Amino acid sequence: MLQRFIRWLVRLIADTFFRRIEVIGLENVPANGPVIFAGNHPNALMDGWLLTARCGRWPLHFLASAGLWKYRALAPLLDASGAIPVTRREDAAGEVDNRQAFDRVYLALESGQCVGIFPEGVSHVESQLVKLKTGTARIALQLAARGKARASIVPCGLNYIHRHRFRSQVLIEFGPPIEVDDDWLRRYREDEQQAVVDLTETLAAAIRDVTLNAPDWRTLHFIQTVRRLYKPTIAELSPAQYVELSRRFLQTYLVDREDPEVQALAAAIEDYQGRLDLYGLKDYQLRREVSSGYAMRKILLRTVTMLVLLPLALPGALLHLPIGWIAAVVGSRFSYEMDDVATLKVLSSALLLPVLYVGVSIVVGLSFGFWWGIATAFFLPFSFFASLRILETEAGLLNSLLAFVRLVRLGKVVDDLRAMRSDLVQRVRDRVERRVDPALERIFTPDDFSAAP
Fold first, then answer.
1. 316: closest CA among 364, 356, 275?
2. What does each C-alpha distance from 81 to 7, 116, 152 come to in angstroms?
3. Given the DSSP bridges, would you call strands 18-24 and 152-160 parallel, antiparallel or unpaired?
4. Closest CA to 105 of 135, 130, 139
5. What is the pLDDT of residue 255?
6. What is the predicted pLDDT for the residue at 391?
7. Residues 6 or more apart whose Cβ sits within 8 Å of residue 85
8. Three-class secondary structure of residue 168 per DSSP
């Protein structure tokens, strides 16, 4: 019963935190038998929750830093979900003994279950995959050498559109499994250390194939701007298209950073972005001219939406404000690492909200009658989601108002920026047409661009 609750809670957290979760490559996950899920690690506990919610297998035992068990509220949930504590070398003063943890890993895999590992070792904020530790490969090869089972290693790519932003989007991509076959086992028996290194390198290449990797953040920001300029005005990219298009710019269209054309384009885009920042504008606000009537209708629609949702959201908002404050305090004061802040906020909210709902429902039931208590229990979750919708609408309304005022006030500056943008768009699209791989399916064709207003 507790495990079912944990699984439901993890899915609820993932679906609430992210507006859209797209999964591709699920056919690469074996339906039966032992599997080691090995993925990149950019977002602390959220990475494990996402894989648990969307990998299609249960139970999934994650190797997790033993330091997480120091949180008293978190430890029972980690144990109930089957997480396995591992002491990292950098966290220990002396020798590290993880034999008990590895025994649990082998027991789970030999019984046909799944294990999740993040081979980078720690959650990080780098723009690319960092060097993998050899533990994943060692576990897979040692498991095969024990002779009871062989696990498939499924590379996982967690690609966040905006990693820490609430109601953002994420792409989860599963690559073809790496099978630890007789050849790998022979190599392991002949030269254990070299086989582990080779399998680790094979796994690193497989994870890179399902993730977006840039040499540095400046390059990644450049690619993100180029991608926005390239796509048709009215097109909305799915997370899969977002990652794939960014990957093509990195690996094909703009791969040669020493090319004078690429350098000139990067300088022009940096100048354009600097001017946008100076005037407080966003690129999407310049994609097409918007009439005053259209802008006012959009602002009016968002205002009406807020007014309609307000009666439903207001009672819940008053109750949820203390939860938000507590979550903020927990995230800032008790984070084990800097990258745990967001996940601790989400976890503390997920633990406190049910307590709040039950407590308020009991108080209402005792005060006004049983059925009023039941009605309150059903009403509060709806009020919570209405509050979220109002916050999203309010943010959109504020952005629309600010954009409308700036576009009207700046006048000639906006016209010059639109002309600059139009020139950059043409340069980017010309570059793609000359560098495109004809063997790859096009995400957008020339017809898409000509049809866009």
1. 356
2. 8, 12, 22
3. unpaired
4. 139
5. 79
6. 63
7. 64, 65, 66, 68, 69, 78, 101
8. strand
Helix (H, G, I), strand (E, B) or coil at 170: strand
Residue of 420, 415, 418 whose CA lies nearest to 271: 420
Binned average pLDDT, 10 residues per bin, the chain of 453 residues: 74 83 95 96 85 90 83 76 81 74 93 95 85 95 95 95 78 96 96 97 96 89 91 86 91 85 92 88 78 68 72 67 68 55 66 79 88 84 70 62 69 88 93 88 82 57
With H, G, I as helix, E, B as strand and everything else as coil, classify residue 370.
Answer: helix
Query: What b/e string do you get for 189-227 counting C-beta neighbours within 10 Å, with b at 16 or more?
Result: eeeeeebbebbbeebbebbbebbbbbeeeebbebbbbbb
Please report the pLDDT score of residue 355 as a whole number: 79
Quote the CA–CA distance of 308 and 55 in Å, as a whole number. 38
Peptide bond into 59 cis (omega under 30): yes
List, as one string, the DSSP characters of 16-75: HHEEEEEEE-GGGS-SSS-EEEEE--SSHHHHHHHHHHHSS-S-EEEEEEGGGGGSTTTH
Q: What is the pLDDT at residue 399?
A: 67
